[in-house]
Design goal:
By secondary structure, the chain is of the alpha/beta class. It has 2 domains: 6-166, 3-Layer(aba) Sandwich (Rossmann fold); 171-320, 3-Layer(aba) Sandwich (Rossmann fold). It has 10 helices and 10 strands. The strands form 2 sheets. Strands 2-1-3-4-5 form a 5-stranded parallel β-sheet, with helices on both faces. Strand 6, helix 7 and strand 7 form a beta-alpha-beta unit. Helix 2 runs parallel beside helix 5, helix 3 runs antiparallel to helix 7 and helix 7 (208-223) runs parallel beside helix 10 (301-323). 50% of the residues are buried.
Length: 342
């Protein structure tokens, strides 16, 4: 895997998602995976950006009737030897070199470990029983196509294991291309509005919590802006109280999220709302502090999760260009967050 320019990575996602789709389908066709049965528990284990994609996978599994939990890989180091949190494990590491998921996987039940990673010969593939890989795609230092490919892999895994419909998986790359073009102008406007924000909160629930969490991480990594991510209803229970002028808020959702947005607009908060609701139904769609972005009405499940995260990807690109920052050039480097290349 080669590190490439951020804007190139975002722009080239459609073609690379098609490459990833073919690689994922091939890996699943060749895999022998222990079935997930009713009453079994599936744990999704990850760190960093991959843990945000895990939100979507856990929610999708739970919605289908499977018992599912998200585990932070570093927490597994505290488990007693032989302790098992689940019947099956999905271990996610885009690079395949994050030490925490690799260490965790070694302690999980052999025969029950599925790895999702970009790199076919990465260290993660040596400690799982089935490796679902994207084909070694080039990616930016602030993950873009690696993240959306992880969501695509999760979707196709659910289809393979549970018969869960994922819609037109073959059409997702084309839809991503169209959506990047469709969202561009609004995302650029949102980047202008958020330029004065000293902090930005990201809010969503269900599968949309994935985009909220990943968006918050991307703003921190690429723009060095203090952020936080919250489930919608958790946000209502106090965390929204610091919102003031010079605060930013990015919200994903169609229900309680709308009245949340409406309640803060007159406080000078700069808001970006990403929703499937027709914009004409919003209480104040033309408010000077609101940028509303309409998702395709027929996008559901993992497809919606992929399209949602394109919004912060685009905003980060425009904001970085305006401020002169280069996403992926980090001030603080931690040498132990990845195993060395061999």
């Amino acid at each position: 895997m080669k590190r490439i320019d951020y804007d190139t990575a975002v722009r080239d996602q459609p073609a690379n998602l098609e490459r990833a789709r073919r690689s994922i389908v091939e890996a699943l066709a060749d895999a022998t995976i222990e079935p997930w049965r009713a009453g079994d528990t599936v744990a999704v284990v990850a760190m960093g950006a991959s843990s945000h994609a895990a939100h979507a996978l856990v929610f999708a599994l739970a919605a289908s009737g499977m018992r599912a939990v998200a585990l932070t890989a570093s927490d597994a180091s505290f488990y007693p030897a032989g302790a098992q949190s689940a019947d099956h494990y999905v271990i996610i590491s885009e690079s395949g070199r994050s030490p925490e998921p690799i260490t965790a996987a070694r302690g999980f039940t052999p025969g029950r470990r599925i790895g999702i990673t970009n790199v076919p010969d990465s260290p993660l593939t040596a400690v799982v029983d089935v490796a679902i890989t994207f084909g070694d795609l080039d990616d930016s230092g602030v993950y873009t196509v690696g993240y959306t490919s992880t969501l695509l892999a999760a979707a196709l895994l659910c289809e393979h294991m549970l018969g869960m419909p994922v819609g037109d998986a073959e059409g997702i790359p084309t839809r991503v291309a169209a959506t990047l073009a469709q969202f561009a102008a609004a995302a650029e406007l949102a980047s202008e509005r958020l330029a004065t924000a000293q902090t930005v909160d990201f809010v969503g629930r269900g599968m949309s919590l994935a985009a909220a969490s990943e968006g918050a991480l991307m703003f921190r990594e690429a723009l060095a802006v203090p952020t936080a991510a919250f489930d919608t209803y958790q946000y209502l229970h106090g965390p929204m109280e610091p919102l003031r002028e010079h605060s930013g808020l990015v919200v994903f959702g169609d229900d309680r999220e709308l009245s949340l947005v409406d309640s803060v607009l007159d406080s000078g908060v700069q808001v970006c709302l990403v929703t499937q609701r027709p914009l004409a139904e919003l209480a104040r769609p033309a408010h000077e502090n609101l940028v509303a972005i309409a998702l395709p009405a027929d996008a559901t499940g993992f497809e919606r999760a992929i399209l949602e995260v394109l919004v912060p990807q685009l905003i980060v690109g425009y904001s970085a260009a305006r401020s002169g920052r280069r996403p992926g050039e980090f001030t603080y480097r931690q040498p132990d967050t990845k195993l060395p290349l061999t």
